[in-house]
């Protein structure tokens, strides 16, 4: 009960700061995933066409994904210095695998009969991609984007160690004071809510864009 009172007091006294850090946190996460989608979706389509490349591409993406987040941030910091750009690049790298994998699975999972029907109608490869393959694989690709964004929101929290700001600043501040549980929760709760909201929003967008109603 005391922790709840302290939490509410912290929010009442610091809500403009919390909102600012919430916005900064979301922007870094969104930019990282957006840039990753711009790279990974075309690459996923390419390796779905060129299966021989898929093993190499997935091996590289897996190595990146298994690198600890703090180690990744430390390495990038040596090159790019402190700040949000370092975190965004880290999120870009971490978001590649789920989007790449789901794009590959979605494109290769389109039934051959649909492709043959499109070819029989005189569609070009680009028309097949735009009108058949992408709509039919959209739900799988969106699942990859949802996973990437939720993970990115969590990883962004540790960006505070490279001076990026975000809700991680509040969490770390709570760990540095005695009886800081309420301050830790003041940063952790909005982070969790952001992840849930992002997942629900992308789920809604997936349903809106899906050709199957």
From TrEMBL:
The chain crosses the membrane at residues 26-48, 69-93, 136-162, 182-205. GO terms for biological process: amino acid transport; glycine betaine transport; transmembrane transport. Residues 22-202 form the ABC transmembrane type-1 domain. GO terms for cellular component: plasma membrane. Pfam families: BPD_transp_1. Keywords: Amino-acid transport, Membrane, Transmembrane, Transmembrane helix, Transport. It is found in: Cell membrane. It comes from the Bacteria. Its main location: membrane. It is a multi-pass membrane protein. Belongs to the binding-protein-dependent transport system permease family. CysTW subfamily. PANTHER family: GLYCINE BETAINE/L-PROLINE TRANSPORT SYSTEM PERMEASE PROTEIN PROW, OSMOPROTECTANT IMPORT PERMEASE PROTEIN OSMW. This is ABC transporter permease subunit. It comes from Bacillus aerolatus. The lineage of its organism: Bacteria, Bacillati, Bacillota, Bacilli, Bacillales.
């Amino acid at each position: 009960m005391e922790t709840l009172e302290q939490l509410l007091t912290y929010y009442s006294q610091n809500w403009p700061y919390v909102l600012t850090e919430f916005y900064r946190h979301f922007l870094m996460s969104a930019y990282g995933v957006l840039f990753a989608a711009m790279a990974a979706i075309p690459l996923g389509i390419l390796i779905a066409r060129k299966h021989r490349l898929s093993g190499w591409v997935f091996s590289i993406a897996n190595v990146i994904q298994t690198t600890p987040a703090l180690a990744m941030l430390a390495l990038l910091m040596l090159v790019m210095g402190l700040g949000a750009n370092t975190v965004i690049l880290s999120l870009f790298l971490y978001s590649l695998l789920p989007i790449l994998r789901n794009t590959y699975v979605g494109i290769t999972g389109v039934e051959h009969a649909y492709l043959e029907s499109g070819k029989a109608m005189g569609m070009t490869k680009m028309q097949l991609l735009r009108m058949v393959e992408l709509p039919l694989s959209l739900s799988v690709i969106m699942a990859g984007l949802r996973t990437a964004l939720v993970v990115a929101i969590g990883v962004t929290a540790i960006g505070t160690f490279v001076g990026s700001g975000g809700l991680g600043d509040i969490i770390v501040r709570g760990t540095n004071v005695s009886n800081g549980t309420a301050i830790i929760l003041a940063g952790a709760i909005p982070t969790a809510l952001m992840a849930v909201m992002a997942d629900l929003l992308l789920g809604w967008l997936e349903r809106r864009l899906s050709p199957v109603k």
